[in-house]
Design brief:
- By secondary structure, the protein is an alpha/beta fold.
- The protein has 2 domains: about 350 residues, Ribosomal Protein S5, domain 2; about 200 residues, Rossmann fold (3-Layer(aba) Sandwich).
- About 40% of the residues lie in helices and about 20% in strands.
- Helix 2 links the parallel strand 3 and strand 4.
- Helix 6 packs antiparallel against helix 9 and helix 18 crosses helix 19.
- The longest helix has 19 residues.
- It is elongated.
- The two termini are about 40 Å apart.
């Protein structure tokens, strides 16, 4: 899809939505967990196509969560989107929805554009294109994460229709490209309040929803064929639409959905078994039959064998498949379903319970940064190692101290990048093409997302930023750093530094004093003083803590308390 072609539209729900201002976002992080959704049946496949959300249907939220970590740095001069490497990147999909959010945000502010940088990491709970809403889960994680970071300018329905108007999937030929896809918004509805729900095929209104106590913690077992083959989803959906267009099939599905709607609208008195009977009937009708038949011939016999078990409430294939979701009575175990699965070559791939609360949202603990700088052999790394993994408490909360040592990661990068390898080989701090900057920031946030739980995280940045040029870019493009970061300047007398240098392997050959020559060479490239000037002059950072290190590192906890208790500017 051409970058200029999206967002396809701003939902009508947003046209008259206006806010006067946003929070001043300097650095804000959230963790969003989106529950999986089972799409038991689309109501009318003729009502949607790529670029037009619709179709409606009946869905169920399940407590299998994909996780999206989002950190926003506002008030920046760039619009970088950092997508962190991990189990799953889905780069094109994430970038698309960041831009969708950016444009929608500008729309309600009444301004041309909104500049912010963001770091995003997506951790899937299950594979993509298995019928459990993985693609929508990525999109919703991004949209809700950004929305939380900006103080929730949009409500849940705004986000749902933002996704509906701009739903895309990766191009199967080129995963870096996206194209419009089929969307019912079932995953979005499930992420709001969980439970079982019915969506209108045209308006996408939520016609019925039940998430009562009776559904809470009902076991859900997910099965897949022992051997499955890849299906052409677009062809299956088109064939399904053709079948839904047949008058008798359309009438049959309409009747079944009206009964389902009436059943769910009974709220507390709803019969789960009655819902199960209607869902099972839908598995035999219209487009759903087309979807099931496109997979293993064992799926129908398996569902029939499962349905007659006393412990089973609801059984049906999810979305285009091939996952079959079985909702059972409390106390049911996988052993109760084993015989039916083995007899029909189906494999249990996961188990959970019905979700009746929707998505999970967690505000990430604050980030605090200490830029540890000093001349070569002043004791920076030794100090950081002494403090690493300790917990220092200020007046408000515990702070976990983490040592971010740039050197080992740079050497790791050098294995695949000859230019970085040459920089390290020559002992240079210069990075003329800024090849190290983005991967270093990405690595930093990967560690932050990994360790931030119930404690504020304070990173001791050792060797990064490592030059005046790099520091200027970081300060300009990532405003959150100058908000959280203070400077810890480590100073050691020259004779102490020389003694430390002599204990290391000499680097300069042919000199009467190899250690002295090597230290002088390294001092000649050192940029400690001008970097301190940048923090003072350009960032108005006055808190430069100088620790004179003459022997073994001894930094008191009170010193770190002083650093960590500094209020944000």
């Amino acid at each position: 899809m051409d970058q200029t072609s999206y967002p396809k539209s701003i939902s009508n729900r947003l046209v008259n939505k206006r806010i006067n201002q946003l929070q001043n976002i300097l650095g804000n992080g959230y963790r969003i967990q989106i529950p999986a959704r089972v799409g038991y049946c689309v109501k009318d496949m003729t009502a949607f196509h790529p670029g037009k959300a619709g179709g409606g249907g009946i869905g169920l939220a399940v407590n299998l969560f994909s996780t999206t970590n989002v950190f926003v740095s506002g008030l920046t001069e760039n619009q970088h989107t950092h997508i962190l490497k991990g189990e799953c990147t889905r780069t094109a999909l994430i970038k698309h929805h960041v831009e969708v959010f950016r444009v929608c945000l500008a729309q309600i502010l009444g301004i041309p554009s909104v500049s912010f940088a963001c770091f995003i990491q997506h951790q899937p709970r299950f594979g993509s294109h298995c019928g459990l809403g993985s693609t929508s889960g990525v999109a919703l994680g991004v949209l809700h994460g950004l929305n939380e970071c900006f103080g929730k300018p949009f409500n849940d329905e705004d986000i749902r229709f933002m996704l509906a108007d701009n739903y895309v999937e990766e191009n199967k030929i080129d995963s870096e490209e996206v194209s419009f896809g089929y969307e019912t918004t079932m995953t979005a509805v499930g992420s709001q309040n969980g439970g079982c729900f019915i969506i209108d095929e045209n308006s996408l209104d939520i016609l019925s929803r039940i998430s009562s106590y009776a559904w809470n913690d009902l076991p859900v077992f997910l099965f897949a064929p022992h051997k499955s083959h890849e299906v052409n989803e677009s062809q299956v959906l088109q064939k399904g639409a053709d079948r839904d267009a047949e008058e008798n099939e359309a009438t049959k599905k309409h009747r079944l959905f009206e009964k389902l709607r009436a059943e769910l609208n009974q709220n507390e008195s709803v019969s789960i078994d009655a819902v199960g009977d209607l869902v099972f009937a839908l598995q035999q009708s219209g487009s759903k039959r087309t979807e099931v038949e496109s997979h293993s011939r064992f799926i129908y016999p398996f569902m029939e064998a499962i349905k007659i078990l006393k412990c089973t409430h609801i059984v049906g294939m999810s979305s285009v498949g091939p996952i079959v979701a079985v909702v059972c009575s409390k106390g049911t175990t996988k052993a109760d379903l084993n015989d039916a699965a083995e007899n029909h070559r189906m494999v249990l791939i996961d188990e959970s319970v019905v979700n009746t609360s929707g998505r999970r949202t967690e505000k990430l603990p604050d980030l605090k940064w200490v830029h540890v700088i000093g001349k070569p052999c002043s004791g920076k790394t030794t100090l950081c190692k002494e403090l690493a993994n300790t917990v220092v408490s200020d007046d408000s909360q515990p702070n976990l101290i983490k040592h971010f040592l740039a050197g080992p990661y740079l050497r790791e990068l050098a294995k695949s990048n000859p230019i970085i390898a040459e920089i390290i080989k020559n002992g240079k701090v210069k990075d003329p093409k800024n090849l190290c900057l983005k991967p270093m920031l990405d690595r930093l946030f990967l560690e932050y997302f990994d360790v931030c739980r119930d404690k504020t995280v304070c990173f001791l940045l050792d060797g990064f930023p490592r030059s005046v040029e790099q520091l200027k870019i970081v300060v300009k493009d990532y405003s959150f750093l100058k908000t959280f970061l203070c400077v810890l300047h480590i100073v050691a007398p020259d004779d102490v530094r020389m003694a430390r240098q002599s204990s290391r392997a000499p680097r300069v050959v042919g000199s009467e004093s190899m250690e002295e020559a090597d230290l002088a060479r390294r001092d000649g490239m050192d940029e400690t003083s001008p970097m301190i000037d940048i923090w003072k002059d350009e960032c108005e950072i006055q808190r430069v803590h100088t620790v004179v290190n003459t022997s073994a590192i001894e930094v008191s906890v009170s010193c770190m308390n002083s650093i960590l208790s500094v209020e944000r500017h």
